[in-house]
Amino acid sequence: MNPYLKQLQQIATKKKRTIIGLMSGTSLDGLDIALCEIEGSGFNTRVKLKHFETLPYPVFFKNQVLSIFAKPQINFETLCLLHAYIAHEHAGMLNTMLKQWKVNPQQVDLIASHGQTVFHAPKHQHQKKAFANATLQIGDGDHIAVKTGIITISDFRQKHIAAGGEGAPLAAYGDSLIFTEKGKDVLLLNIGGIANFTCLHANGKITSSDTGPGNILMDGWIKENYKGHFYDKNAGKALKGKLNTPLLNALKADAYFKLKFPKTTGPEVFNTHFVQKALAKSKTLKISPYDILATLNRFTAETISDAFQQLKTGKNTKLYVSGGGIHNPLLMQHLRQLNPHLSFHSTLEKNINPDAKEAVLFALLANETVCGATSVFKKAGPGFPAIRMGKISLPV
């Protein structure tokens, strides 16, 4: 028997497992690295975040990814080269952090690597009859396993699509294991480049969906109009502007917002071209950049809140917020004003750093891959197939 298969069997039977989650989102800020101690599986799972760090990407890395990111036509050689390059860089970043944390790689049971999404194409978006939902994440797991010497689980989204989902959002699987409260509605919102939510209904059903843009339009506008800046720090520029209602209405008129849950999207749709079209349609091309940012900020808040209204959760439902958007004070102010029926909470109450939550959730998915049971998720809701996800890569 391959010794690594025997090792996997031993890992599955351990009382506690050390699993590292690696997450790289659409914002391309950097690599989130979360070292977790996980006990049990399914609804008996207990997770403790031991270490967390976000390592920023060098400009060269960002530029290479952006050259193929969410584009229908690309240099195919670049895509091929990046598949190995991204994995190599992620493994190097992880090895650096293990040394800094004084953790021996032999102490780590598994790596859970999300990879880098470069294109997301649900059927409602591409509308090609001969093809189903599709998504592509690169950063090959074999390269990570070989360079770190640690068994690596990666490419989680393909099983979700194979089982009838859209490949996103996957957070609901981990959310349901950690945040479920018997007899209560619980909402979880992650505001990354794209915003997505998980609603854990009191009756055991689960609704999970993207809502539309999170930070992606605001970040894109900053990058395009303010050289050397990558996001609107503390909403400083948006706070100088005023909401433009015609522009807001044009932005919200997109057909995506009329689709039923669950639905997913990405930068293939919501990008600076989308903003320019809305500016032209609303005849607001000459308004100030500050007003545009103020309106984009409100747009994110309203589309998230419109999604919440469809859920019809109970009064004082707990809402746990995570992701980069929590650091935008204007966005959080809008969300509180628009959702007085919700009780806002931080994932820190569950001992999970809100910036680390996505990386932690992929560590949880890897844990389920090795020792979980698909029966945990049966009959939870649409777009939520009962599956364990991820491909296993063994070191040499």
Taken in chain order, the helices and strands follow as HEEEHHEHEHEHHEEEHHHHEHEHE
Can you tell me the overall shape? Answer: globular
CATH architecture level-2 label of the largest domain = 2-Layer Sandwich
Taking all residues together, what is the mean pLDDT? 95
Low-confidence stretches: none
Share of β-strand residues: 15-25%
Major β-sheet profile: 7 strands, mixed
Number of beta strands: 12
What is the count of helical runs?
Answer: 13
The top-level CATH class of the largest domain is: Alpha Beta
**What helical percentage do the residues reach?**
25-40%
**CATH fold group of the largest domain:** Nucleotidyltransferase, domain 5
Taking all Cα atoms into account, the compactness measure Rg is 21 Å
Distance between the termini: 14 Å
Q: Superfamily at the CATH H level of the largest domain?
A: ATPase, nucleotide binding domain
Q: What count of structural domains?
A: 2
Category from helices, strands and their pairing: alpha/beta
